[in-house]
Amino acid sequence: MILPVYLYGQPVLRKEAEAVPQDYPDLKQLVANMFETMYHADGVGLAGPQIGLSLQILVLDADVLKDDYPECKGFKRAMINPVFLEKSEETVSMEEGCLSLPGIHEKVARSVKIRIKYFDENWQEHEEEVSGFAARVVQHECEHLAGHVFIDNISAIRRQLNKSKLNNIIKGSVRCSYRAKAVGK
C-alpha cells in the first residue's frame, strides 16, 4: 500500500521517534508498505516519521545509485531501532534532497564512514560498517528518527534563502509526483 509522505511542517517530523516494540503488529507489512511508498516516490530512503509514524524504523534501497557510487550496489535494508556505534571524523559535503522537503536541495556535510547496529524486519540483529554515499543515506534517514531534517545542517543564510520554499511546503503549495500530506491537509 502506498502511504502519503508527510511534508515539512508536520509535527511528527520534529518529534523524537519511539523504539519499535518487538511485538509491533504487522511489522513485515509496514516494511513492505514503506518500500512501496519509497519506490513510488523515487526515493532511496524513507523513515517512519515521514509516513506519520513516530517510530524508529527506516527503509533504504540505494542500488539505483550504484553506477555513480559502487558502495550502493545491493544496499537495500530495513533498519529497526538503529544505533550509531561510530561515526568517522572525516566528513564530505554533498547535495541532498528529501521526500519531505520537495524542491529543496542543499549541500550537507556527513561522516564518510559509520558503524551502525540495528534489527531487520525479522528481528535479526545486525552490526555493520557503511561508507561513502550509502553511509550518507543511512545518516540522513536516521536524522528523521531524532526529529531532524537535513536543512537543520545548513547555514542560517542558506535556510533564509530557502524560506519561501519552506513556507510553500507548509502551506501545501507544492506539487509532488507522489502522495503527500501537508500541514492541515
TrEMBL record:
Membrane-spanning parts: none
UniProt key word Transferase: no
Domain of life: Bacteria
Catalytic reaction list: N-terminal N-formyl-L-methionyl-[peptide] + H2O = N-terminal L-methionyl-[peptide] + formate
Binding site for Fe cation: C98, H140, H144
Gene3D superfamilies: Peptide deformylase
Task of the protein: Removes the formyl group from the N-terminal Met of newly synthesized proteins. Requires at least a dipeptide for an efficient rate of reaction. N-terminal L-methionine is a prerequisite for activity but the enzyme has broad specificity at other positions.
Annotated HAMAP family: Pep_deformylase
Xref: PANTHER family: PEPTIDE DEFORMYLASE
Family: Belongs to the polypeptide deformylase family.
Protein name: Peptide deformylase
Organism: Parabacteroides absconsus
Biological classification of the source: Bacteria, Pseudomonadati, Bacteroidota, Bacteroidia, Bacteroidales
Gene: def
